[in-house]
Amino acid sequence: MTPMDAILERALGAASVGAQALMEALDQLPAAIYVTDEDGLITYFNPACIDFTGRRPEVGRDRWCVTWRLYTNAGEFLPHDQCPMAVAINTQRPIRGVTAVAERPDGTRVVFRPYPTPIFDAQGKFKGAVNILEDVTDEVRAEDFRAQARRCHRLVNGIDDPEVHEALNRMAEEYEAKAAAVEEEWKSKARLAF
Amino acid sequence: MSDAMARFRPEAISASEWRQIVQSATETAIISTDPTGKVTSWSEGAHRILGWTEQEMLGRSLECLFPDPNQLSRELRDATSTGRGGGQEGWRQCKSGGRVWAAGEMHPIRGDDGAITGFVKILRDRTANRAAEETIAEERRALEILNRAGSALAAETDLHRLVQIVTDAGVELSGAEFGAFFYNVLDNKGESYMLYTLSGAPIEAFSKFPMPRNTAVFAPTFTGEGIVRSDDITKDPRYGKNAPRKGMPEGHLPVRSYLAVPVMSRTGEVLGGLFFGHATPGMFDERSERGLEGLAAEAAVAIDNVRLAQEQKRAEDALRELNAGLEQQVAERTAELRANEEALRQSQKMEAVGQLTGGVAHDFNNLLQVIIGNLDTIERALPEESARLRRAANQALKGARRAASLTQRLLAFSRRQPLDPKPANVNALVTSLSELVHRTLGETVAVETVLAAGLWQVEVDPNELEAAILNLAVNARDAMPEGGRLTIETANSHIDEAYASNYAEVTPGQYVCISVSDTGKGMDDGTVARAFEPFFTTKPVGRGTGLGLSQVYGFVKQSGGHVKIYSEVGHGTTVKIYLPRLASDGLAEEDAAADALAADAESEETILVVEDDDDVRTYSVDVLRELGYRVIEAHDGPSALRLLERQTRVDLLFTDVVLPSGMTGAQVAEQARALRPDLKVLFTTGYARNAIIHQGRLEKGVKLITKPFASNDLAAKVRDVLDEGA
Hints:
The complex is a heterodimer. Chain A is elongated, with a radius of gyration of 20 Å. Chain A has 2 domains: 3-135, 2-Layer Sandwich (Beta-Lactamase), CATH 3.30.450.20; 140-193. Chain A contains 6 helices and 7 strands, in the order H-H-E-E-H-E-H-E-E-E-E-H-H. Chain A has helices at residues 3-17, 20-28, 48-53, 84-91, 137-158, 162-193, and strands at 32-36, 42-45, 69-71, 100-103, 109-114, 117-120, 126-135. Chain B is an alpha+beta fold. Chain B folds into 4 domains: 12-125, Beta-Lactamase (2-Layer Sandwich); 133-239 and 251-312, 2-Layer Sandwich (Beta-Lactamase), CATH 3.30.450.40; 419-587, Histidine kinase-like ATPase, C-terminal domain (Heat Shock Protein 90); 598-723, Rossmann fold, CATH 3.40.50.2300. In chain B, 45% of the residues lie in helices and 21% in strands. Chain B contains 21 helices and 25 strands. In chain B, strands 1, 2, 3, 4, 5 and 6 form a 6-stranded antiparallel β-sheet that branches. In chain B, a hairpin with a 5-residue loop joins strand 10 and strand 11. The radius of gyration of chain B is 60 Å and the shape is rod-shaped. Chain A binds chain B through residues 72-74, 76, 78, 84, 96-100, 113, 148, 150-152, 154-162, 164, 167-168, 171, and chain B through 405-406, 408-409, 436, 439-440, 442, 463-464, 466-467, 470-471, 474, 542-545, 547-548, 551, 589, 592-593, 595-601, 716, 726.
């Protein structure tokens, strides 16, 4: 079970029973977690959401998502009613394996992986959904560096010039090193968090 | 002596008889005088010719006959000394105050002793003869002038000299003080305008005055109504009726006698008018009029001829021009055809070289796959402590990889590299590449990008486009050993029919143009012409294989584009790559949106490897197993499908494109998907030109890894395919 799965389990438990104590426990978690009712209206968010989104979400008013603005990985604007959480609520199915970009009111951006998961009561009735927003900015940055390194290696194959080979190989190494550094940082942060 | 002679006795004629004889000569004046010239007898003829009667003249001196008062004494003296006085024709006064033209002599009359007793004056009236002679002379002169003018006109081809001859002849013919010929000429556009020549007056005398207008006086001439002759034009009722001037303008030569003759073409067109003037009234008579009429007719013929000649010349010129134009057109068209032929020949040559290199490269590729695969295995299998062997294996692997990359470039040139075209935004690609280009080329080369706004999308293999641009950038760097500026520019571009017809394999239409320009030393035409040929290089040995531009050429051609070099020695080089515009620009966004929700699922997966070459298959299977996948293998399509039916889980089919046993990789994939709709497929081939490749390009959605591949390439590709759409 990954750390995220563990958090999700706790969040689901808290949301489905609505126990105050459990909600308070969620408050302490470093990951951004929020809960909506069956219409997607926010019913709970933990303090980490404020840091994550750069704003204070409004319970009962915000719908689908706690972020300020959403974009796709390619930079296209993504309306909240089309976000993964909206899809999860509308289809009553969990959404996994996607990433998106959240923009804060101050303009900074964070790449995240959401875990939108529907909540059903004991009778199997759909009650709403819970979502965790995992910050994967560093992960993506590392992947970008790796992509650059791959690009350099690829170009080496396409060019027949010793100087260019040397320059491209050196750049590839630099990108690999940067990727490794970012990954190291991100892993150590993750270790600290959990 | 005969009887008749004997009977002839002159002395027998009496004085009375003599007198009768004299009086009967009525056409001749016979006058006798005394020795001083006083009239002693006056014949009837004298009375008739001179008007005076005998009675009136008897005793009067003959002096009154002569306009010159000394004439009589001269005649008397000559008659006395030589026996004959006078003899010259001249004017003699008549009683009426008029005069007659007369011829006559003065003879002495002698007495029996021989002494002069008086003189006899014989005088004949020649006035009528004289007038007739004068007329004849005038006519002859006029004819001479006309003849002279006529032959001069016949020989004259210059209109301006011709009208001058006419004007001069007219003045001579008419006895005018001055004459002018106003005539119409046609300019190049065939429009008529008026010029004039003068005779007998300097050009300045008229230069101040405007052209004659169509006034009452001039009109009959310019409209061709007829000749206008006036003894005194100032008295003509038509004269001076035209505002703003009354009569001749101030400063005009004085004109009283006036004669104007229209010059008419045989077609009836008025070519111009001849105008003559004299300060004295009554200078022009019917004869002048007739003479000028003849002159005008000759002038008309001559002008007609000149015009005809001019028209003929114009027509000839036009024809010559047309012919010359035709020759030029033929020359241009021929040059165009020659250029087309040359382009076709060049493209055929490239195609032939491509076929050859492509075939060789393909075979090499399969060999290299085996070499690289096994070297890879050896290297990884060697224990840490066998450093020397590991180094050797590593060196061998490096060499083989270089050989593989060389074959790859040859395949690129021969348009057989497998391309993976995707909708692409060239501006984004250039932007992300420019930093890399800058770092690759070093500090001495400044890299600039000029990106067009609203650039169309293209469908291209982005990795190969990057390689092409970098190749051009490296060439640019080599052209600028002292450094310089590299400019990468993008633009929307149209290739029209005319341009396309100059190049083989270029279709007119919309393209995105990527220009890579340097400020380097440039190339001459010969170098430009061969620049795309494989192994053609101007670089020193060891600095490249001469495949960079060939690779670009093959890639662009395989992508349905066009590539063109513009270069001038000393002024740099620009290489333009034209890639066809993507018909539906919107696709890229949908793809991007799909990417947004990219999957990153992970699990344990099973891969089915289908490959007929045992060595290659063994290598692939080993690599994949090492990566942690569960691998099953088959050597042909039918056995692969049987395995598939028995397996509970297969995630990926990894198959060669060309397989034995009558099934291609594509057919295996199709049937496998029928069994398992979620099955992912990855193809491999050393050779792209086969069933799965549509015109040398991959079909949409087909995933391919080209041989030879290294383990990490395969690992990445397999992961990509498995993750896609998960």
